[in-house]
Amino acid sequence: MKQNKYFSPTRFAYLLRNDLLINQKSYLFTIVGMSIAVYALSYFEMITTKHFSNSHYSGLFFFYFMGIGVFIGSSFPALTDQIKTSNYLLTPGSILEKFMVQFLIRIVIFIPLALTIFWIATHLAKASMIPNPAIGFDPAAQIQDFHFWNLFNDHINNMDRLIYILSYFSIASILFAGSAYFRRFALVKTLIINGFMVGAVILWFIFLSHIFYQADTFSNNGIHIRLLEYKISANLDNKQLAGYLLGGLSWLFFLPLAYFKLKEKEV
User: Do 123 and 179 fall into the same domain?
Assistant: First the structure.
């Protein structure tokens, strides 16, 4: 059948099994290492601060997500060498199937697994705390239980929560696309390129501010970027809309970019 040219369940299962067999040690070490690291850091922070709140969990989760990003940014390990790349592209299977194998392992499976590890490790860290009546330390009362919903501010609405989640997914898609685009040091190059892009956007706004608001751009206190803010609806302004579009929809660009870059390598 014609669709077998692009996707075959049998070929996909073969590619998935082949990837798990080749990289099983690295996957296992990653999971074990992240589990130990988040437990150790959680325990150390809890025993040091004695009062562990949602802000502490948020800071810990930020660094944990960086670890998740490193794993996602190391997708397509076979593309790091020209010979391995040739062998990988010649392996029976379509580019769509090879793309989906990495997407399934690195994002669909790993992210929920990593979030589950974080939840379990933080609860185990709290359970490891021993009460100390001498200083009035009671873990049950002074250390909050971790819940993912508590990472969000209580005052934001459900739409903003959804955008935050999609923004994390967009960041993951950027790192995923970078691993397909660059051959060596993909993670570092992806971060550098995105840093330059952010810097270019800031310079562009400075340039526009200098043209249209010359009196306000430069002052004794330094350079200021003036962005007009106006209401689009009762609960939405232009800055929020820009954040929604960039954070919530960027993955729609970067995931296809990764796929078409693989198609380019095949050619």
Answer: no
